[in-house]
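Is copper (II) ion placement plausible here? Inputs below.
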Amino acid sequence: MQVNLFPRRAVRPVRTLFAITLLGTGVLFASEPASAQQNASVAISVKDHRFQPSQISAPANRPISIKVKNLDTAPMEFESVSLRVEKVIAAGSEGVVNVRALAPGRYEFFDDFHQETRGVLVVE
Ligand SMILES: [Cu+2]
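Reply from A.M.:
I modeled the complex. Tokens:
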């Protein structure tokens, strides 16, 4: 009886894995460059019920992370109808509001708890 120490079947999974790895690498290179996928980030604070600065800007066609720092002693709610976001940020704390990739334009936002507190995101 002949004993095959290296049956072909045992080799196959390794080759398959190698092929999948190659395929995966190809997919990785075929997709968009990393910079296009990465979130743009922009920071804003709220102090005495005013956004500081009241106008922020971000690049178009990239998801945006807006870091909101609430320096007031009251909670606020960062809200925007056009951006379709709302997030409560406790007094003296901060939060990140993630926004989808946007077309160029002006997107208004406000504090839903103090509606006179307003700002605008300029996307260009
Ligand atoms: Cu609200």
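Short version: The mean pLDDT is 85.
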